Known about the structure:
mainly alpha
Amino acid sequence: MGERRRKGRxxxxxxxxxxxxxxxxxxAWELASVEYLGVSRAEIELRLRGQLDTLxxxxxxxxxxxxxxxxxxxxxxxxxxxxxxxxxxxxxxxTDRLLTDQLISxxxxxxxxxxxxxxxxxGWVDASHRSILTAQEELRRAVDTxxxxxxxxxxxxxFE
Length: 160
């Protein structure tokens, strides 16, 4: 059953989704379908909206500087989107849809988009690497603590 539209609203009374909101929703769906992120899809959308705004701002900025897109990649790791499939789906989705409805020439847009997504990927890889090293260090400390406890005398002052 199709939704009837009246005065720019859907049957349920909500305004039609903007291209940016639709892209954010698709991005959240892609990430949530890859792995459990620990928050609702609505929360993921909310968090990704700011990241998408950052990417669009960088894409249209004059002068163009793609390096801050690394922070978006690092943000994905902070969001716990750490599987390579999450990065793959992010890059594919943004490659296909980020230039839609942007006020930029196709040639300049493709150049800028490729640099932007490279920086996003670099930020994701760097943050993933730091996350792995941090987890390894925490594990090493836990093992050291367990060894120290195992070597400690097994006396209980309550029963002496």
